[in-house]
Write a structure and sequence with these properties.
Number of domains of chain B: 1
Number of helices of chain B: 6
Order of helices and strands of chain B: HEHHEEHHHEE
Strand content of chain A: 25-35%
Largest interface: A-B, 21 and 23 residues
Strand order of the largest sheet of chain A: 1-2-3-4-5-6
Number of strands of chain B: 5
Number of helices of chain A: 3
Helix content of chain B: 40-55%
Order of helices and strands of chain A: EEEHEHEHE
Oligomer: heterodimer
Structural class of chain B: alpha+beta
Strand content of chain B: 25-35%
CATH class of chain A: Alpha Beta
Shape of chain A: globular
CATH class of chain B: Alpha Beta
Largest sheet of chain A: 6 strands, mixed
Amino acid sequence: MENLEISETKSSPEISFNGSSYILSMVGESYPENTSQFYEPVYQWLEDCIASLAEQELVFNIELIYFNSSSSKVLMDIFDTLEDASDEGKNIIVNWIYDEENDSALEYGEEFAEDMEALTFNLVEKS
Amino acid sequence: MISLYNYKQDLEQDGIIFSFSGPMSHEIIEGIGSAIRVKIGEGEDGDRRAALKVFSIFVEQVENVINYSVEKDPKDSGMSFGIVVVGKKDGLFFISGGNRIEKERQDVLAEYLTKLAAMDKAELKVYYKERRRAEKSADSKGAGIGFIEMARKSSRPLEFSFQDIDQDYSFFTIKISI
């Protein structure tokens, strides 16, 4: 897979992927003006990335300080897609990174984690 | 109105920290939103947890005005008009938003919000997760879970009202306390 690089804005996260390490990261805040318009290409890209996975492991590091309810729905779709792929034997790890002071971020992470079975979904306190 | 002093005093008396009435846009969310976070979250008595919660409710309320207010800019910019205020009273932050709606939507909205107001935190969580995975309803322009999100963050049951404007329209107000 090729590298992916989407720059951070005030209301949308930085999204980057390194094609040699297979680490995908999403960092920042998410309340874009048009949520589906912002995430549609990311979602398409993710589907291609999953399809390209053979033996290697995809690590998705996600660190969102804040996201709105529209973004929450998109994240759920993304995790459901990753869950299905894990169920089919793909190696995917999600690291949900939160700041200890941000109890909402931890709570949301726990709620996503509760719904995942095949997908490895780690809650990681930011050091 | 030559002096805004009395108007400002009235706002302060009601504990209002920020008030915005007019055309709403994404830039308003980013701009006023940042100011809210700084005002509540920074400084000696800053409370970053509360700031983020207030900000999150503010975002949902402005987005509701943008998506659902039927009062549009006559100059055809497509911008929606409404009002959002943020304040603090009796130790609780409150965020109130209001906009014009078609009267025929009032009953459906009232029924939905009454249902949410009666739910406890555990029920709201289950309902939130259920709706988040559900297909979007036809009349929803966002994810359709904004009110549930607000109800979950509110430390009191959500409050709302409808005030008659004329035979076709009423003014909808929602208040969340944190």
